[in-house]
């Protein structure tokens, strides 16, 4: 917008200056010509005053002095045909002036100022002052150059002022764009700084109000989820009592273990939604991935699967909670074990990248099977292998919640590869 406003002001200023300076330039040229003619006429009249009183030698001396002083060639055509002063041909205009009429005539090379001197015994003499193009345009080029410099200076000043005004307009708009991007990335604390014209300030205040309303709605949603999780404690307590009342100790212990696991999951949900309502979640991806790979390595060893693992020592902060990342890694590795034959190798690679981390899970299985009709393996509830299709959706939502993305492609040696990009927390020192 700044560039367009500058171009608009430059075009407008140029049109105004052209409309003003072109007539002024023509007027300067006309005034220069008029001044030169007036000066030449005065010089010719001063020589004409001595035509009847001086002899040829004196008249020649007067013409040469006047010509040297004024810079114009002075020629005197006497009635007897004698020519005194600067050499010049007797033109038709001179013949007309010899009839007693003073005049100014144009020639191919300049302008003739002719003064008729009557009353001489032999007839009428003519004093000729010649003006060349340089005489008629003397000083005009300098004035035109000054006007051009003045016009360019005014255009530059106009563009500078327009740029400052445009900056006062575009700076708050750019800030609002940055705030909207931060909101889209999940930073609901982003707010604008009021500034600029009243209309732009109104837009900024409306954006702040929208961000506050979104924060309130998300807080209400998370509290509702937490309240719902709390309500599950009552049936869990009933299940625990039912399990403890069983006569078979082994069955009671088994059900009690399941109830404990369910209660821990409900507690995790409560803590997670309330933590999200207070601050952005983050965790050390290196530690979480290493823990989950170690957990699945036991099953991989039982099935004879070769596992290639490359995890940096860390810490490698990402903008997801440890529970969410654990569920994501479990979903991806669970797909590997569920949809590839026993003995199929797999690899897990975690590496830092600008703005977060890159997690790649690949296997040597059959790869992603095409879905019948429309659909995609990332579409929730769709699967080409008879599963629920929720595992990849969990991984996708985890990546997008951190500001990253998930892509699927074929592994170099055959099989499937899932590339998960995880964003870094907003206050981390990750490269951006």
From TrEMBL:
CDD domains: HAMP, HisKA. It is an enzyme of class 2 (transferase). Keywords: ATP-binding, Cell membrane, Hydrolase, Kinase, Magnesium, Manganese, Membrane, Nucleotide-binding, Phosphoprotein, Protein phosphatase, Stress response, Transferase, Transmembrane, Transmembrane helix, Two-component regulatory system, Virulence. It catalyses: ATP + protein L-histidine = ADP + protein N-phospho-L-histidine. Gene3D superfamilies: 1.10.287.130, Histidine kinase-like ATPase, C-terminal domain. It comes from the Bacteria. It is a multi-pass membrane protein. PROSITE patterns: HAMP, HIS_KIN. It is found in: Cell membrane. Residues 227-426 form the Histidine kinase domain. The chain crosses the membrane at residues 113-131, 143-162. Residues 167-219 form the HAMP domain. Its cofactor is Mg(2+); Mn(2+). GO terms for cellular component: plasma membrane. Its EC number is 2.7.13.3. The keyword NADP does not apply. GO terms for molecular function: ATP binding; phosphoprotein phosphatase activity; phosphorelay sensor kinase activity. Its main location: membrane. This is Signal transduction histidine-protein kinase/phosphatase MprB. It comes from Sphaerisporangium melleum. The lineage of its organism: Bacteria, Bacillati, Actinomycetota, Actinomycetes, Streptosporangiales.
């Amino acid at each position: 917008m700044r560039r367009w406003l500058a171009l608009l002001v430059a075009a407008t200023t140029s049109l105004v200056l052209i409309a003003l300076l072109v007539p002024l330039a023509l007027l300067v040229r006309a005034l220069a010509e008029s001044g030169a003619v007036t000066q030449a006429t005065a010089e010719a009249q001063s020589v004409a005053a001595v035509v009847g009183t001086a002899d040829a030698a004196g008249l020649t001396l007067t013409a040469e002095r006047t010509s040297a002083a004024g810079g114009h060639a002075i020629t005197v055509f006497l009635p007897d045909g004698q020519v005194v002063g600067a050499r010049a041909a007797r033109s038709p205009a001179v013949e007309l002036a010899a009839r007693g009429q003073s005049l100014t005539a144009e020639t191919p090379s300049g302008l003739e100022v002719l003064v008729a001197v009557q009353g001489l015994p032999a007839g009428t003499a003519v004093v000729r002052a010649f003006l060349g193009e340089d005489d008629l345009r003397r000083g005009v080029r300098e004035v035109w150059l000054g006007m051009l410099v003045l016009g360019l200076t005014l255009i530059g000043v106009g563009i500078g002022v327009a740029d400052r005004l445009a900056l006062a307009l575009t700076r708050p708009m750019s800030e609002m764009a940055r705030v909207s991007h931060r909101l889209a990335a999940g930073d609901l604390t982003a707010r604008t700084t009021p500034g600029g014209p009243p209309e732009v300030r109104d837009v900024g205040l409306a954006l702040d109000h929208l961000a506050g309303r979104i924060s309130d709605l998300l807080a209400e949603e998370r509290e509702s989820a937490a309240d719902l999780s709390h309500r599950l404690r009552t049936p869990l307590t009933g299940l625990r009592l039912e399990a403890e009342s069983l006569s078979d100790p082994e069955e009671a212990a088994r059900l009690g273990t399941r109830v404990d696991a369910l209660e821990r999951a409900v507690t995790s949900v409560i803590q997670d939604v309330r933590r999200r309502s207070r601050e952005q979640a983050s965790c050390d991806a290196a530690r979480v991935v290493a823990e989950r790979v170690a957990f699945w390595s036991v099953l991989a060893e039982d099935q004879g699967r070769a596992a290639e693992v490359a995890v940096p020592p860390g810490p490698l902060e990402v903008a997801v909670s440890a529970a969410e990342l654990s569920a994501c890694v479990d979903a991806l590795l669970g797909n590997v074990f569920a949809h590839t034959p026993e003995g199929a190798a797999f690899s897990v690679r975690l590496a830092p990248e600008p703005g977060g981390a890159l997690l790649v899970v690949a296997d040597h299985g059959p790869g992603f099977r095409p879905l019948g009709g429309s659909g995609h393996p990332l579409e929730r509830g769709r699967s080409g292998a008879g599963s629920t299709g929720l595992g990849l959706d969990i991984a996708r939502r985890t990546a997008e919640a951190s500001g990253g993305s998930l892509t699927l492609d074929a592994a170099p040696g055959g099989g499937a590869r899932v590339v998960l990009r995880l964003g870094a927390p907003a206050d981390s020192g990750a490269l951006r």
